[in-house]
Specification:
The protein is mainly alpha-helical and 179 residues long. It is built from eleven helices and two strands. Strand 1 and strand 2 form a beta hairpin. It is globular, with a radius of gyration of 25 Å.
Length: 179
Amino acid sequence: MMRIVFFNLFIGLPVGGDDRRSQFKWKSLSNLINMKKLLFSAFITLLFFSSNAQELSNNLKEAFKTDDIELFKGVLKQDKIVLDSCLQVEAKPYSLFAISIKTKSIKILQHLISVKADVNKICDDKSPLMYAAKYGELEAAKLLINAGAKIDLKNKEGRTALDYARKYDKKELIDFLSK
């Protein structure tokens, strides 16, 4: 009897008398078990991918800090970093473009463009152009647009690069993106 009560609690069946259990449809039981399996699988998958997110190594930080393309290329190869991946920086995902914009590493940004990295890659719900607008990096914005960055690309909240330029009061970017 104790096993039945435990099983019923585990799968969500009522624990009361026989009349309530007999009213339960086995099709619903099957759906409930399948739903629990699906949720468990989703949880395990999320746990796997969140624990395997690649972090920014000290060598890669140094490459961005010094805007050293040769060091950058060597570290990408050594750390097996995929160009269009999102890297964890202080628990937030950033693309290589976003990091180059934040660190003002124009040579690395130009290199990423030359090797055809995705100029519209969204990490943390922002594209590289949105980061350029947020940080007021006009030169980076021009390079990205010339490489095919979409000015009208919207994130999940419906914001564009121009919206970020306005939000952070970056007048040069507002003028440039409004043309």
